[in-house]
Write a structure and sequence with these properties.
With 292 residues, this protein is α+β, with helices and mostly antiparallel strands. Helices cover 39% and strands 21% of the residues.
């Protein structure tokens, strides 16, 4: 090989080395930028991950704070249950009977057509005889004394069946005695001599409850109002204001609800501002408990 050829080859090798070196340097630079970019993305990802939970936590905290400290407007009158579960078996049957009237229409009707209508939703029979008559129209209308007696009567039939007794034999009462019982329940005369408590006690079917705190859901109540009206109902619960009994929630049939419904009324006792809670005369509330 001549010196000329050797010099030419050396020059070619040098050029190749320069090109290879340049390529290596470019590759390293590109890789470095990619690595930096990747690291930057990872750092950003970590920052976002650390921020998102913080934002959610802040929002949740704000919600919790609003729930804790947000002013809540509450009514002055708040019901307080008398007893969650009554241990009185017959009262439970009364409440069960109430539940059977939750479907359909049961309008209110009060009239003086006693020969054809007695305030019950369907005809009631006792010892093979017609005892009380439903409205001939078949609309299942009722009034307060009628529907409460109907519930009592059906609960007694249920009670007798559970005890293995005849359903149409209520405490040994004959037809005429039960008819007299009904007249007293219906207040057919002065209330001092005719009311559901007197009916229960006369025929040894129950007793009067004088302590309101001893009353239980399923007890029967007869009360009078300041406007000279009265009502017969099934007690559901007392209504209290700071622990004080100021009214009652009940079930019955009344014109104001156009028939069978739950309703709340208040006693004519004074609030702290001197105004009355309602119109029921508290001293004229008669509570009767059936004790078969």
């Amino acid at each position: 090989m001549t010196a000329r050829h050797l010099g030419y080859n050396i020059k070619r090798i040098s050029i190749v080395l320069i090109l290879v070196t340049a390529l290596l340097i470019s590759g390293i630079a590109i890789y470095t930028e990619m690595f930096r970019a990747g690291m930057g993305q990872n750092v950003l990802s970590k920052k976002v991950t650390s921020v998102e939970p913080s934002a959610v936590t802040t929002e949740a905290s704000a919600q919790e704070t609003s729930e804790v400290f947000e002013p809540i407007t509450k009514p002055v009158i708040q019901p307080k249950s008398t007893v969650q579960e009554s241990p009185l078996p017959f009262n439970q049957l009364v409440l069960a009977q109430i539940g059977t009237y939750n479907k359909g229409s049961y309008p209110y009707l009060l009239n003086t057509d006693y020969a054809n209508y007695n305030g019950v939703t369907s005809n009631l029979y006792y010892q093979g005889k017609l005892l009380l008559k439903a409205n001939p129209s078949g609309d299942r209308a009722s009034h307060c004394v009628g529907i409460t007696f109907e519930v009592f009567f059906r609960a007694m039939q249920d009670w007798n069946q559970r005890q293995g007794n005849a359903g149409d034999n209520i405490k040994g009462l004959n037809y005429d005695q039960l008819s007299d019982f009904i007249l007293k329940w219906y207040v057919a005369g002065p209330k001092t001599e005719n009311n559901l408590v007197i009916a229960l006690e006369k025929y040894k079917l129950g007793k009067q409850i004088t302590n309101f705190e001893e009353a239980r859901p399923g007890d029967f109540i007869d009360f009078s109002r300041e406007n000279q009206t009265g009502h017969t109902v099934v007690l559901i619960d007392w209504v209290r204001d700071n622990g004080k009994i100021v009214g009652l929630r009940y079930w019955s049939s009344q014109e104001s609800t156009n028939g069978i419904a739950y309703k709340t009324e208040y006693f004519n006792i004074l609030r702290s501002d001197g105004t009355k809670y309602g119109k029921i005369i508290k001293d004229k509330v008669l509570i009767g408990r059936v004790v078969p």
